[in-house]
């Protein structure tokens, strides 16, 4: 802490926040979120009805403790605990799910909420600046949008984190200029976030640790998906001159994404530069970096295990040569994803035979976590790949369905589907051709004939996308 | 025609095209498409199985004559005649519907098709260059991607069209640099498209006219929607400082879009610059320009009536001071739509109570035209508005439904819904809150109580997005 800054404690800070305040927090990938003030809010006996906005998933102090205390009445835009999920599905919390790239603008310019206070985690703070901790997310936009600012100075995190940050602020529309990033590993900003000094109400010191990730060991399905993905990417690099010199990859967060990233080490990239332009750094990516196969990695946050975080922290200066953390409106920016010709690999809950993807709502109704940044990549990547196991529950539940009843990624968005069964490259296909390829190459053997029978029957219709909604709905009841 | 170029006639050109060729054509907004060679192909007695790719809608010579001749077996990515629509729904044509912004890249880099020949319309041609006629679309990408090139030199169109064109070619990913456009009315390219001279097989001269648009006169519903939209925009300009100096608008094509554009003249924009950053120039926009209320207009094509085209052609030099036509990968570029903070206004077939929008398939099955560029704007605009009449067929069919069975624009994309009944501003709303606002403000009186009863009943579920699929499906049968 540098200069003459207002020091306070978490309870005093919490007491100052209005009971119906709109609170913007740091946090993305369950790291870098404020912990002490949310916990003090959860432990207060006030009757709170907060609107809470984070740009990505946060950890237990917010998504468990604060939710369980009943303090949150409205929430944007990704939640990641079973407690928050249940509260969302009971609709005790009014939850609205937005794309990670746009939450900053929506808060700042779009009238989505009327922000009161921002609470951010930092590893260093001075007069008019702070260095974010383990995530960036939409923090710069949130700090500009809020009337008041609290900073949690977290001593658990190394100050060396400043060397991974590249904070660039896009101007306000309509005079926004093109983001001048031409290399994912390049730097166009500062290592700190600036703020108007008069906004700072208090600095709270803490040493609470992040809620780190736990990834399961790769399953047989994960490894089979990884092998199919490698085979497809290998052919594609051979086929398309656009990948002659370099390939830019992105992977969705989770055990599968982490496994896919790690298993990519077994792919022969030849002389190509392999670059990561994504949202989150996972353990698998550290493995790729350590193996020397990755030129650089750009993201907005980490989603690391406790072990992965320790690896990173212990060697932060070395990793900082190759890792850059950016605001989410840069890391997930549609125009930049387009520029770099990103190959995006994201998972989902299910996809249907025509290529519509549901990544948020079980049976179209029950929210899991949220859309996060998956649509930012699926929509704007040069090559959008949806990868997931063909069935759940030991083959009891098919993740390839006749019709999904919640669509997060449309039939216009996904190029390739990969399961442990195979690869359906649906580029250039009509909807019915997509269905044929998806059933043949991606469906689980237990469900293939039922899906084929559905398709054969509806094909009698004279419709571009033939459907039998009642029968498609029955699929979920069997 | 300048220099020593290979002149030919349409029949000779058509005879040279392989019977199973992949043909990329100019054309967007039913104008600027090649006419003579497609007609010669339609009139040939060869057994053709062509793959035809246009970046937007084309006119009758392709979407009626060539379709009726049975020559097209595969088609991307927007069709606009009842003949093409029927062939698509019979699945005689394998039709795949892509977003207008990305078709160029998908053809050139994505492996969507294996292009053979490009046929483009021009008003002037020389050694290695031509000036496009009434549309640009993805022509520059198509010309680069194809092995061979035919140019139709159309004498119906004024050479003055060169002054509206601004042809900028983004580099190839991953070394693509940011598009340096900072003002929608600015120029960053040339008035002509360049091509490798050895690709040019023949120049065909023609004087066939474009298939111009016919817009109906504004209906009472159109005028009521326009009044509701004006009222909303007026409040929004008052509320949000982002619109203090300028507002950037986009309108979807069609009679409603055209009417909304024209009726916007009645809105008091104060001292603000009013700028159009969209896909198509319609007659209503010429009215806005003539009234002096529009600073500039950027698009990729025209969608004008015969009268509108005459107005434009007769005064092309004056209009060219304010109108710029760009390639669709610039006009519809996600990053540029974001930069300018565009307010996008697009219509649809229907939307559901939770805010999902269907703009392509009647009852989720029967293709109408295609998605065009609507998703480019809906996804990336600062403010995305979906505007349409609440009912069809004199109030017989509701365009607000419990659940739409084809989703082109997801619950994450649309901010505001406008019908002749009112305005539902759903920013910051949870799905159930969206449903309440949409039913209250947008539904037609004949369907309001049925929709409310559906919502009341499903709300008994403990789900984030409560649904009764079977009952939602019945909605279409009553």
UniProtKB/TrEMBL annotation, chains A, B:
InterPro entries: AcetylCoA_hyd_C, AcetylCoA_hyd_C_sf, ActCoA_hydro, ActCoA_hydro_N, NagB/RpiA_transferase-like. One of its GO terms (biological process) is acetate metabolic process. It holds the Pfam family AcetylCoA_hyd_C. The keyword Signal does not apply. Residues 308-454 form the Acetyl-CoA hydrolase/transferase C-terminal domain. Keywords: Hydrolase, Plasmid, Transferase. GO terms for molecular function: acetate CoA-transferase activity; acetyl-CoA hydrolase activity. It comes from the Archaea. Residues 9-205 form the Acetyl-CoA hydrolase/transferase N-terminal domain. Belongs to the acetyl-CoA hydrolase/transferase family. This is Acetyl-CoA hydrolase.
């Amino acid at each position: 802490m540098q200069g003459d800054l207002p020091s306070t404690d978490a309870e005093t800070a919490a007491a100052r926040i209005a009971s119906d305040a709109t609170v913007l927090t740091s946090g993305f990938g369950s790291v870098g979120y404020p912990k002490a003030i949310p916990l003090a809010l959860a432990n207060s006996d006030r009757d709170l009805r907060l609107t809470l906005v984070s740009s990505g998933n946060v950890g237990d102090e917010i998504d468990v403790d604060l939710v369980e205390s009943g303090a949150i009445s409205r929430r944007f835009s990704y939640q990641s605990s079973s407690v928050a999920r249940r509260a969302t599905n009971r609709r005790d919390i009014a939850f609205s799910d937005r794309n990670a790239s746009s939450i900053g603008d929506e808060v700042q310019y779009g009238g989505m909420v009327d922000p009161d206070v921002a609470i951010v985690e930092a590893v260093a703070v001075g007069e008019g600046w702070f260095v974010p901790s383990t995530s960036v997310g939409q923090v710069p936009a949130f700090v500009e949008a809020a009337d008041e600012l609290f900073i949690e100075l977290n001593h658990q995190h190394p100050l060396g984190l400043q060397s991974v940050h590249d904070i660039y602020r896009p101007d306000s529309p309509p005079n926004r200029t093109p983001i001048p990033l031409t290399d994912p590993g390049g730097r166009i900003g500062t290592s700190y976030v600036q703020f108007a000094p008069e906004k700072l109400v208090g600095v709270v010191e803490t040493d609470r640790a992040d809620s780190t990730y736990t990834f399961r060991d790769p399953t047989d399905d994960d490894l089979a998906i990884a092998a199919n993905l490698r085979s497809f990417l290998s052919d594609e690099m051979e086929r398309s001159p656009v990948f002659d010199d370099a390939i830019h990859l992105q992977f969705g967060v989770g055990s599968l994404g982490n496994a896919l990233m790690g298993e990519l080490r077994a792919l022969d990239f030849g002389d190509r530069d392999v670059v990561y332009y994504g949202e989150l750094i996972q353990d698998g990516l550290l493995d790729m970096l350590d193996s020397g196969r990755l030129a650089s990695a750009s993201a907005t946050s980490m989603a690391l295990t406790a072990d992965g975080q320790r690896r990173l922290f212990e060697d932060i200066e070395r990793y900082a040569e190759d890792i850059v953390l950016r605001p989410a409106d840069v890391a997930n920016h549609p125009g930049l994803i387009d520029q770099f010709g990103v190959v995006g690999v994201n998972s989902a809950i299910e996809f249907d035979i025509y290529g519509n993807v549901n990544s948020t709502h079980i049976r179209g109704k029950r929210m899991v976590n949220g859309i996060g940044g998956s649509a930012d990549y699926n929509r704007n990547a040069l090559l959008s790949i949806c990868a997931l196991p063909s069935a759940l529950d030991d083959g009891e539940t098919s993740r390839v369905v006749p019709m999904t009843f919640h669509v997060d990624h449309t039939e216009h968005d996904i190029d390739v589907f990969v399961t442990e069964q195979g690869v359906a490259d649906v580029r250039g296909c009509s909807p019915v051709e997509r269905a044929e390829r998806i059933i043949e190459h991606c469906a689980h053997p237990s469900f293939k004939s039922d899906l084929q029978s559905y398709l054969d029957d509806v094909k009698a219709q004279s419709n571009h996308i033939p459907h039998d909604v009642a029968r498609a709905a029955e699929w979920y009841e069997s």
